[in-house]
Amino acid sequence: MNEQYLPEASNKKPVKPRTVQEKEAVMNRLKRIEGQVRGIQKMVEDDRYCVDVLIQISAINKALDKVGHSLLERHTHHCVASAIKNGNGEEAIDELMKVIQQFSK
Amino acid sequence: MNEQYLPEASNKKPVKPRTVQEKEAVMNRLKRIEGQVRGIQKMVEDDRYCVDVLIQISAINKALDKVGHSLLERHTHHCVASAIKNGNGEEAIDELMKVIQQFSK
Amino acid sequence: MNEQYLPEASNKKPVKPRTVQEKEAVMNRLKRIEGQVRGIQKMVEDDRYCVDVLIQISAINKALDKVGHSLLERHTHHCVASAIKNGNGEEAIDELMKVIQQFSK
Amino acid sequence: MNEQYLPEASNKKPVKPRTVQEKEAVMNRLKRIEGQVRGIQKMVEDDRYCVDVLIQISAINKALDKVGHSLLERHTHHCVASAIKNGNGEEAIDELMKVIQQFSK
């Protein structure tokens, strides 16, 4: 069902698979963010004050940025570093720069 | 259950209650965002490529910004404008500026 | 000479002219920012370390955001509030929302 | 004179010195940004409309982001890639992540 939201599948995988612990840490954060999104749905339904909803949206953005940054960090330490060592650094760095630019917009 | 994520309750309400249509429009966007958050949970579980997950996180941030902007717009047109007409503009504008600053961080 | 960088002239003016003190406060900040921009020019000429230059660019961005926020605050307190009181609020708020959106991109 | 704005000197240098052409390209952008900053000083002195000044500040921010991104790109292709190849990748990547985080704030 959620598949409709997934970006087009790339066939790539992280060079080093995420460990159970890593997955759990990211999942916990994402579950919390999902709860926060449901929280603001309830706020809107209850006709809560606009500024209170806005503060909450800003908190979700920051939480997403944190997850994003930790994924970016892992990606650079593993996938990008590995590509550089294997002589495929240029492509990996270009891809990295592109996603960083996307985040800063 | 989601209550734990709600910011401290302010007693304020939008000066003009959200109409059923307005609520529906915001709720649809938030439901979609909730689906996107679940989508990236599945991506992490499936050990999908880091950059694909990052692109999706960036899309959620943009979707949240859009919801935030539309709430901000409504808030300014109704709550802030009304406060200004009633001679309580200073406080309402200070509050508005603070929430805008929070978003830009 | 700098005129080439100015956006197309709008005929509008702040409803309440900036006082000498207000102009001075903004000008001091802008002079400091100009100095910072010249500072990074020197850093580039001296082939200084990339990350050091980047940190400085980030500092200039933050300084510009601060000036921007203070101008936005004054604009809302004076121009927007005045337009709302005079029954021209809609247009002033739309313009405000547009410039806020531009900043958040 | 501008030295007061320089961050504390790090002894590091780009692993591959900037070429004359690279320096020129960055300097041209920075000279243009300096002109834009002087442009908004003139706008403030002339008591130009707040929103016009704000649009111009937003343009400078975007121009700085572009310079920053191109420096970041070069830094990653040369300094970070070289550190990774020489077995000092961890430190270089941590530094990179930190400066990216600083930019996103």
UniProtKB/TrEMBL annotation, chains A, B, C, D:
InterPro entries, sorted: Metal_Tscrpt_repr (IPR003735), Metal_Tscrpt_repr_sf (IPR038390)
Q: Where is this region: Disordered?
A: 1-21
Q: Which GO terms of the molecular function aspect are on file?
A: DNA binding; metal ion binding
Give the GO terms filed under biological process for this record.
negative regulation of DNA-templated transcription
Q: Please, which domain of life does this record's source organism belong to?
A: Bacteria
UniProt-listed PANTHER family:
COPPER-SENSING TRANSCRIPTIONAL REPRESSOR RICR, TRANSCRIPTIONAL REPRESSOR FRMR-RELATED
* Stated name of the protein: Metal-sensing transcriptional repressor
